[in-house]
Design brief:
mainly alpha; 3 helices
């Protein structure tokens, strides 16, 4: 399988997972309340906070060979922005507070 095909497959998998995660987050919020400490919510947010950056690194390290560098960089910047927005939306839905520096 070509690197470009792997990236397309990953995108086709990530979109439904992101939507499913939002549905799960709403379910947790509705069933357990806004002040819930439901572990599934924290796990869901943790997975989305860690896995995409790991994928971005692996994609850059192993799947970027032969790709147009500007197109590849632009694609990763767009993916990063969508990923950050998803993490913020999930945290907001779940009512998880951001850490505040002291």
């Amino acid at each position: 399988m070509k690197p470009k095909d792997i990236r397309k497959l990953a995108a086709w998998i990530a979109v439904p997972l992101a939507l499913l995660s939002i549905v799960i987050a709403f379910h947790i919020r509705c069933c357990y309340g806004p002040d819930s400490k439901e572990p599934l919510g924290y796990i869901l947010l943790g997975v989305w906070a860690i896995c995409p950056p790991v994928w971005f690194f692996l994609e850059w390290a192993y799947l970027s060979e032969g790709a147009d560098k500007q197109d590849f960089k632009h694609g990763q910047e767009l993916a990063r922005n969508v990923w950050l927005a998803l993490v913020v939306v999930l945290a907001a839905i779940l009512g998880i507070k951001w850490p505040v520096g002291g």
